[in-house]
Amino acid sequence: MPLKGLFLDHLATRMAYAEKALSATGFDALVISSGQPFTYFADDQDAPFNTVPHFRHYCPLTGPHHVLVLKPGAKPMLVRYAPEDFWYEQLPLGSPFWAEGFDLVEAPSLDAVWEKVGQPKRAAYIGNETDRAAAAGLELNPASITAFLDWGRSYKTPYEIHCIEEATVTAALGHAAGRKAFLAGASELEIHYAFMEAVGCLEFELAFASIVAQNEKGATLHYENKRSFRGGNTLLLDCGARHLGYASDITRTTPAPSCDPRFKALVDGMEKNMLEICAAVRPHMPFGELHHFSHLKLAGLLKEHGLLDADPEEAVALGLTRPFYPHGLGHHLGIQVHDVAGKLAGPDGSIAPPPAGHPTLRTTRTTEPGHVITIEPGLYFIPMLLRPFRENEHKARFDWKLIDELSPNGGIRIEDDMLVTETGGRNLTRKHLPN
Ligand code: GLY
Ligand code: MN
Ligand code: MN
Fold first, then answer.
1. Could you tell me the CA-to-CA distances from 236 to 12, 254, 415 in Å, in that order?
2. What is the Å distance from ligand 1's center to 32 Cα?
3. Which atom of ligand 1 is nearest to the CA of 251?
4. In this structure, are strands 77-81 and 67-70 parallel, antiparallel, or unpaired?
5. Tens-of-pLDDT digits for all 435 residues of the chain?
6. Taking the domain 3-153, which CATH number applies?
7. Out of the domains of life, which is the source (predicted)?
8. What are phi and psi for residue 185, nearest 5 degrees?
9. Distance, CA 415 to ligand 1 centroid (Å)?
């Protein structure tokens, strides 16, 4: 279906859901800001602007200070902030594919925007322009309706799935360029630029701060620096792009020809594990079960390669895989890279508890058709996590010499984006980035 049709269907779904949310939480209208920029303390500089995600869920319009007014049974009103300005560029609206979905009005100033919004009765407000919203008599960011809407955000419409897949297409181009630069001897900074050039965007337009880690830095999970040294043995590249406000989140680990072949064999083993975990994705499956499966697969790999002397069930039960793999298997993905509702048990805001033995999971939901999740198992050599095991009752289970020899290679993470379907999972990444 053409994009316009996909979007209009998405908007109709959203409006029907907003009506349910309003009636369940006792409101008659919903007002959502695209947001105001964050200004650094004691400064006149703003942080890069990031649209309020609830606004993005209804409307792809970018930029601050726009406002949506949603009322059951009425076409959504979009008040577009459109000042005349010679300091900053204000792009004309043009004829975007989504415009037909809205009753669109333009306002040349903030006062004019909020005049158009008016003072709707029994209205909930979502956003950070709280002084304006309070003055309009709106109830500010009520937790009840926010939770209800967050729950709805975890079920992606075909339009949203299209956007996320397009974001993986672009990120795949960036990953291919980043890997090529690495294999030609580039530095982390140069690889970062190669990724952005292929994606064709500015840094703040990426889905998140890129992780470009050579050698031991691969063991810092969210390493965001970019060093200028060249000639690494390994590259862990965790980068995503955006499409119409939706994110992708992809990781590849690449050994250079100079890499220790024992580490390269671990990368190959992780790739095999990763594809098996992806193939195990099913609807109606507690995410904690998949996470547990990923620990069992890792335990098998560590045993096979002589790093750990324990059978997989025993290794996981004793927590011996945890220092090698301290994060969750994945998270929901959508407008936010770590998308909302990964821990919700229902639209009322109740929380799904983590499974026993895995207390810090970002995702504790049961998979449902329409969820988009990342699958990102890891294997790292993190000195601070391994250190206690060098002295405790399990120390003889580890091959410390091998661990020390492989540690300068950092770590391995491989990450794809998966749609949960009625019958299994659809990998949104592999077809665009096969390895
Ligand atoms: N890019 C951060 C993550 O994979 O969660
Ligand atoms: Mn991720
Ligand atoms: Mn990632």
1. 41, 7, 11
2. 28
3. 4
4. antiparallel
5. 899 999 999 999 999 999 999 999 999 999 999 999 999 999 999 999 999 999 999 999 999 999 999 999 999 999 999 999 999 999 999 999 999 999 999 999 999 999 999 999 999 999 999 999 999 999 999 999 999 999 999 999 999 999 999 999 999 999 999 999 999 999 999 999 999 999 999 999 999 999 999 999 999 999 999 999 999 999 999 999 999 999 999 999 999 999 999 999 999 999 999 999 999 999 999 999 999 999 999 999 999 999 999 999 999 999 999 999 999 999 999 999 999 999 999 999 999 998 887 887 889 999 999 999 999 999 999 999 999 999 999 999 999 999 999 999 999 999 999 999 999 999 999 999 999
6. 3.40.350.10
7. Bacteria
8. 95, 15
9. 8
* Domain range 158-427, CATH architecture: Alpha-Beta Complex (3.90)
* CA-closest residue to ligand 1 atom 5: 338
Which of 168, 206, 208, 237 to mutate for ligand 1's pocket (most ligand atoms within 8 Å of CB)?
Answer: 208
- Is the CB of 238 inside a 6 Å radius of any atom of ligand 1? yes
Please write the tens of the pLDDT for every residue from 296-347: 999 999 999 999 999 999 999 999 999 999 999 999 999 999 999 999 999 9
Query: Does any ligand 1 atom lie closer than 6 A to the CB of residue 339?
Result: no
Cβ pair 63, 49 in contact under 8 A: yes
Ligand nearest to the CA of 375: 2
User: Domain extents for the chain?
Assistant: 3-153, 158-427
Backbone phi and psi for residue 40, each to the nearest 5 degrees, phi listed first: -60, 145
Ligand nearest to the CA of 222: 1
Report CA(259)–ligand 2 centroid distance (Å).
25
Does the global pTM surpass 0.90?
yes
N- to C-terminal Cα separation, the chain: 29
Cα dihedral 16, 17, 21, 22 in deg (nearest 10):
-20
- Check the CA dihedral 224-226-232-236 and report its sign: positive
Atom from ligand 1 closest to the CA of residue 240: 1
